[in-house]
């Protein structure tokens, strides 16, 4: 018999007060629903059905055709969402786990544990519960004098005494599929909220004398529900800590880890140090010996060994071994920085391949450029790659010295061992070994100030 999952993700997420449907909202740049789906994939579940409604296309764009969908046009409650699955599910024999689309911290092991518990006990319905010291907002688990689950009461429907109960409904239920769809229509609309509460299935099945049981989970943080932007921050904090911990145990030193965010697909070798306020995201790779940060963002970039990057932005780029970048450098769009380069203050490098042992230490823009090795870009060097319509390339040979405040008007080729005088605007190719001077001669007009400035004595 098969194991099915139904994930409820049709709601708007009113308490979020944002435009995106809640289950598509990103946690560490990944939509919430994706976490749930990835863990379902790793678990004993064979087939997944997702209930979508509010902005359904956004959720479908996330999960594409990896799951089946049912549409709940009007969101009339979690019970109503399950009623919408009748046509797709009612004739199936097997076990169904119902999950909510707003629990991004869920883990495949939890899914397996509760499904196995349910089958081992031969239960008809198993509710996954947990305890919170601050259970506000969650449905409370009502147990009878024998300790068996009787019902779930939503926070706002609880009596004063019931509100003191710490055991809550996680929103995960495991149920014999055919019984779920036999009983689901018995759920009545909640008079206060005018919604059909799935939680009522517990008392309904209990009254019909099915085997209804509760399974309590100890690691309660894994099933937290995200309802507003404050809980988004709590979920992110938890995940950030989990990822950082994994890297630290692998030999990555992270200074002030609560300020460091590392994405799920980042690879970091041991002997790397990450300093505060640093974001490393995408499929970035950081090799051994490198020191990254503080105040640095690295996205989808490859950082080789013993590189130092500080106070800088590095997007879709590569930095080769023993180079230093920053402070305040910006590498982007396919910049490749050669070994032992020195890329310093306020230098932007875009879509350029920079040879080994090159320096651009201060105030430069290098775009669409290929350089040889041992090049020195003086302060204020600019490759003028854009004529207002098209981008043009610059090539620079080995051991070139580019004087301060030089414009290289692209397309232009600079040969090996060229020396360019400071302040030049180079519009023509320069052959190897030449000195290029492309600036006006200086003229000094002596005593000029006399004609220009009114002598102090004549002022009124
Ligand atoms: C729900 C449970 C509560 C439990 C808590 C755990 C109910 C009535 N309450 O409350 O007992 O403690 O989760 O986190 O079930 N959804 C739909 N269609 C709808 C309504 C909701 O698909 O018509 C989806 C939402 O998109 C969401 C999920 O169901 O992903 C849960 O809805 P939400 O409004 O967050 O329920 P809670 O109030 O948190
Ligand atoms: Ca919720």
TrEMBL record:
UniProt: Mg(2+) binding residues: 102, 227
UniProt region (Linker), positions on chain: 230-250
Protein encoded by which gene: glmU
Domain Nucleotidyl transferase: 5-213
Residues that hold UDP-N-acetyl-alpha-D-glucosamine according to the record: 8-11, 22, 72, 77-78, 139, 154, 169, 227, 332, 350, 365, 376
Compartments, as annotated in UniProt: Cytoplasm
One Pfam family hit: NTP_transferase
GO CC annotations on file: cytoplasm; membrane
Alphabetic keyword roster: Acyltransferase, Cell shape, Cell wall biogenesis/degradation, Cytoplasm, Magnesium, Metal-binding, Multifunctional enzyme, Nucleotidyltransferase, Peptidoglycan synthesis, Repeat, Transferase
Metabolic or biological pathway: Nucleotide-sugar biosynthesis; UDP-N-acetyl-alpha-D-glucosamine biosynthesis; N-acetyl-alpha-D-glucosamine 1-phosphate from alpha-D-glucosamine 6-phosphate (route II): step 2/2; Bacterial outer membrane biogenesis; LPS lipid A biosynthesis; Nucleotide-sugar biosynthesis; UDP-N-acetyl-alpha-D-glucosamine biosynthesis; UDP-N-acetyl-alpha-D-glucosamine from N-acetyl-alpha-D-glucosamine 1-phosphate: step 1/1
Name of the protein described by the UniProt record: Bifunctional protein GlmU
């Amino acid at each position: 018999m098969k194991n099915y999952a139904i994930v409820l993700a049709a709601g708007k997420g009113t308490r979020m007060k944002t435009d995106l449907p809640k289950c598509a909202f990103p946690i560490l740049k990944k939509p919430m629903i994706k976490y749930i789906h990835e863990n379902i994939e790793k678990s004993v579940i064979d087939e997944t059905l997702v209930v979508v409604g509010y902005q359904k296309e956004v959720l479908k764009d996330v999960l594409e055709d990896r799951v089946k969908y049912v549409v709940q046009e009007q969101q009339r409650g979690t019970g109503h969402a399950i009623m919408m699955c009748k046509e797709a599910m009612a004739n199936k024999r097997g076990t169904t786990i119902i999950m909510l689309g707003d629990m991004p911290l869920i883990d495949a092991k939890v899914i397996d544990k509760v499904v196995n518990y349910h089958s081992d006990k031969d239960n008809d319905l198993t509710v996954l519960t947990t305890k919170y010291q601050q259970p506000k907002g969650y449905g409370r688990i009502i147990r009878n004098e024998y300790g068996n689950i009787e019902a779930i009461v939503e926070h706002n429907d609880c009596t004063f005494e019931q509100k003191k109960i710490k055991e809550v409904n996680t929103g995960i239920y495991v149920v014999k599929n055919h019984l779920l769809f036999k009983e689901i229509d018995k759920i009545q609309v909640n008079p206060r909220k005018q919604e059909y509460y799935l939680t009522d299935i517990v008392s309904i099945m209990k009254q019909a004398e099915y085997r209804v049981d509760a399974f309590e989970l100890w690691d309660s943080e894994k099933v937290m529900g995200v309802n507003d932007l404050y809980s988004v921050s709590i979920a992110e904090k938890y995940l950030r800590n989990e990822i950082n911990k994994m890297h630290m145990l692998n030999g990555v030193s992270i200074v002030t880890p609560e300020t460091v965010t590392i994405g799920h697909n980042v690879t970091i070798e041991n002997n790397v140090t990450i300093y505060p306020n640093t974001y490393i995201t995408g499929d970035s790779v950081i090799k051994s010996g490198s020191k990254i940060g503080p105040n640095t963002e690295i996205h989808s970039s490859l950082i080789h060994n013993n590189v130092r990057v500080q106070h800088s932005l590095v997007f879709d780029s590569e930095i080769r071994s023993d180079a230093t970048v920053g402070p305040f450098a910006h590498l982007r769009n396919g910049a490749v920085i050669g070994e032992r380069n020195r890329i310093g203050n306020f230098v932007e490098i875009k879509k350029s391949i920079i040879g080994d042992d090159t320096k651009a230490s201060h105030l430069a823009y290098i775009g669409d450029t290929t350089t040889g090795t041992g090049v020195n870009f003086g302060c204020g060097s600019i490759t003028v790659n854009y004529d207002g319509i098209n981008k043009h390339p610059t090539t620079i040979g080995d051991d070139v010295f580019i004087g301060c405040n030089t414009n290289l008007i692209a397309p232009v080729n600079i040969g090996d061992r060229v020396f360019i005088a400071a302040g030049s605007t180079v519009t023509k190719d320069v052959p190897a070994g030449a000195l290029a001077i492309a600036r006006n001669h200086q003229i000094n007009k002596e005593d000029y100030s006399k004609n220009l400035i009114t002598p102090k004595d004549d002022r009124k």
